[in-house]
Amino acid sequence: xxxxxTLEKRAHKSSNGTVSTEAGRDDVFDPTYxxxxxxxxxxxxVWRNVILMSLLHLGSLYGVFLIPSAxxxxxxxxxxxxxxxxxGITAGVHRLWSHRSYxxxxxxxxxxxxxxxxxxxxxxxxxxxxxxxxxxYSETDADPHNASRGFFFAHIGWxxxxxHPDVIxxxxxxxxxxLLADKVVMFQRKYYKPSVLLMCFFVPTFVPWYLxxxxxxxxxxxxxxxxxxxxxxxxxxxxxAAHMWGNRPYDKSINPRxxxxxTFSAIGEGFHNYHHTFxxxxxxxxxxxxxNLTTCFIDLMCLLGLARDRKRVSHEIVQARRQRTGDGxxxxx
Length: 333
Ligand code: ST9
Ligand code: ZN
Ligand code: ZN
Prior knowledge:
The chain has 333 residues and is mainly alpha-helical.
């Protein structure tokens, strides 16, 4: 029996239409969660993060004004850095490490971990743990970026306050042995700070200065700071905008939506109603490579023999699910 057939069999069996593809993997919605009774814990602002995030965004705004003085090569390099760091998130910590939706060889995992450090969004282990708890307890107190607390909280606010205790409590019960067993994940976690200094700030600044004599000032503010902030905001939009605006062709009972703008800015991660309905699908979308650079990248890696075992949901399952729980909206791809 092929992997897809196994998935279909399990999907047929499941009562709410979602399945776990690997024994014990924890990225599937758990409807049994109950919020604790009584008053909510107070919101504790982490001023250090407020100040650092404000400085980062001010620095990036300054970077926008420096764009006209950057050389075309520096702009191209900024694009390359955007792409490498975005893939470190989408193909790396999201589709590979959080959802195990395909398998990657050691060289590819090393490349994705480097891209991940370039994206500086917490180490792979921490990101994947938060993301699994997000899928499992979506829009509850145990969801780190619970979108029912509003756009600002889901976008950036959750990084500026202490976590709700339920996030930590439920997160501690997750099955994470696959991450603990991955040497690349553990190595990146051990050397996270130096790897971020090197990949997120030093390399993006040094290359344009050393190779084509870009001013170090421009090289720091455009390919390093501005590029970092753009990747951050593109990722955060998946948590905020794609949990609020768009249609819900696969499951109208959940908040995540299909959002074209997010799909574009987050290189294929805006098909969020599909993704929360079928979190184990490596394409995160019904439409394969369409508007989905990350899926194209994973396909290319398979072609080169660097990845394999892409998990996919069959057209029949998707259609059945659409009819059963979708909002009746038309194709969104
Ligand atoms: C960033 C992350 O930006 C962005 C994530 C985006 C996600 C997007 C997902 C969408 C889908 C994919 C699409 C991608 C699209 C990409 C497009 C690209 C173009 N379970 O954390 P602490 C434990 S990061 C279990 O201090 P506080 C923890 O281990 C940006 N345990 O909590 C620790 O235990 P111990 C840069 C957990 O004090 C203890 O709890 N980074 C869990 O509440 C305390 O942990 C920052 O800005 C869990 N889930 O502080 C830093 N969580 O003591 C942000 C925690 O035993 N972080 N624990 O070691 C912080 O400063 C803090 O975490 C805090 C909370 C202030 C937010
Ligand atoms: Zn996900
Ligand atoms: Zn989500």
